[in-house]
Write a structure and sequence with these properties.
Number of strands: 0
Shape: globular
Largest sheet: none
Helix content: over 70%
Oligomer: single chain
Order of helices and strands: HHHHHHH
Number of domains: 1
Strand content: under 5%
Structural class: mainly alpha
Length: 207
């Protein structure tokens, strides 16, 4: 039993190492896709006037589900084009790594929006918590992907902690508009920036 377990893990590690370049190529379009979704969702949230804590939380939960679904569809499309199974051991390992922080973020958001309304600080807690936990998820997935993704995860963690500072010090008056802009700037802007970086560095490596 132990020999089978060790053999399976060695196979997964070998496969992950062999597919490092493939993962890097897959990351660029996924990051650009997530970045575009984040920017558009932020603009739509502002345009439609989603200004309640409950509406804000539900809206961005729906956006995040759409983003995750789109990312997996992109991975599935690339797996099919390469004649490889979609739900492969590496895909399962990455999913297992990112699932706990994302689940905690979902539960925390549900608890925040279920609390009595009227506290403007809730608009800051949701983006801050999401950024920190999303950064933890990305950092965990970084053990199975190129090293730069771990730094990308740390960027979200640091930004999330920074966003929470004004809440603790009372320097700003949180609002729905600010929260939508924060989500667009970080979940949109950071993904776009990292996607562009991956795109051009990959083209340079291919050249």
């Amino acid at each position: 039993m132990e020999s089978n377990w060790a053999s399976e893990h060695l196979t997964v590690i070998r496969t992950l190492m062999e597919r490092a370049a493939i993962y890097r190529r897959a990351l660029a379009p996924i990051m650009l896709q997530l970045g575009a979704l984040g920017v558009l969702a932020s603009a739509a949230g502002l345009g439609f006037g989603i200004d309640s804590v409950r509406g804000f939380g539900v809206y961005w939960i729906v956006v995040s589900v759409l983003g995750i679904t789109a990312a997996y569809l992109k991975v599935r499309r690339q797996a099919l084009s390469a004649a490889e199974p979609f739900w492969s051991p590496p895909t399962r390992r990455v999913t297992q790594a990112v699932l706990p922080p994302l689940f905690v973020g979902l539960v925390a958001t549900i608890l925040i929006i279920a609390a009595p309304a009227g506290a403007p600080e809730q608009f800051v807690w949701i983006p801050a918590i999401w950024m920190v936990l999303y950064g933890c998820a990305i950092h965990a997935a970084g053990f199975f992907m190129p090293r730069g993704i771990k730094l990308f995860g740390w960027g979200f963690i640091v930004c999330g902690c920074t966003v929470a500072v004004p809440l603790a010090t009372g320097d700003t008056a949180p609002s729905a508009q600010t929260a939508h802009l924060v989500m667009g700037a970080f979940f949109g802007g950071l993904h776009l920036a990292y996607g562009v970086y991956l795109y051009f560095t990959e083209r340079k490596n291919e050249a």
